[in-house]
Amino acid sequence: MKLGKRNLSTENVIFTTLNSTFLILLSVAMVYPMLNTLAISFNEGMDTVRGGIYLWPRIFSLQNYRVVFNMDTIYGAFMISVLKTIVIVVTNLFFTSMLAYALSRKEYILRKSVTIIFVMTMYFNAGLIPNYMLIRDLHMINTFSVYWIPNIISAFNLIVIRTYIKSIPESFIESAKIDGAREFRIFLQIILPLCVPTLATIALFVAVGSWNSWFDTFLYNSGRQELSTLQYELQKLLASAMNAGNTSGATGGGANSAAQAGGSNVTTPQSIRAAITVVAAVPILVVYPFLQRYFVNGLALGGVKE
């Protein structure tokens, strides 16, 4: 018995050591790119070109962030991005969960057909040009509605929420019906509160996708500056920095000539890209801790069917 316990203890020690080592290496591999980007964003632009920056800036500078925050359009674009993200998250969760509740009801005879139609949209897409023509014909070009109306329903989120709603005991709904509650009241007062973990998880996915999106602004709202988003403005700044870097290289302007002209005030595409990445990621990093406790629980509950 003592020998068995000793072997079991040795096996546990070996497994724990290997598992901990693997997780530490995995964590380092995931965290290092973030810390490296942060270090580059705070490093002097021309010094960044030399390379060799890892976890700490070699020549500390705030010039990269000055360039980003000195943009006249960035603050208005930031407010549009925040408003866009909030509206998309709220409307997507409400309408998708309401449709998911309807498709989870056994008395709805068309639930299978409607579900198949939505699932098909996950595999087949009309393409960029037909989508643009549809948006144009709906008169949503250069309007705020183009951001949220096409995103009201998400097929993947619909399946996840419907699966979770079907795991809710039917006795809850039957009791509410006995008390005289109608379907919409049942949905608002019973289904939605019980779906909070799943809805919080989906809200994080939708918010990240909406916040990081810039191509929709480029396609539909590039003609109205007041509807431009933060990501689109940062994308334009990055493209401008890249073009400036390419032009400098083509005309023979090297690091030495730039440094002589005042290297501490010079930015490079690498440094601007790092600063833009940090600026765009900070809002999501701020929101994530508030939803973290729902994240794993919501994924597990939404993917398991009784």
TrEMBL record:
Keywords annotated in UniProt: Cell membrane, Membrane, Transmembrane, Transmembrane helix, Transport
Compartment(s): Cell membrane
Cellular component, GO annotation: plasma membrane
Swiss-Prot/TrEMBL GO biological process terms: transmembrane transport
Nucleotide-binding among keywords: no
Regions that span the bilayer: 12-35, 74-102, 114-135, 147-165, 186-211, 272-291
Main location: membrane
Domain ABC transmembrane type-1 per the UniProt entry, residue ranges: 78-291
Membrane topology: Multi-pass membrane protein
Record-stated family: Belongs to the binding-protein-dependent transport system permease family.
Protein name: L-arabinose transport system permease protein AraQ
Source organism (scientific name): Ruminiclostridium hungatei
Lineage: Bacteria, Bacillati, Bacillota, Clostridia, Eubacteriales
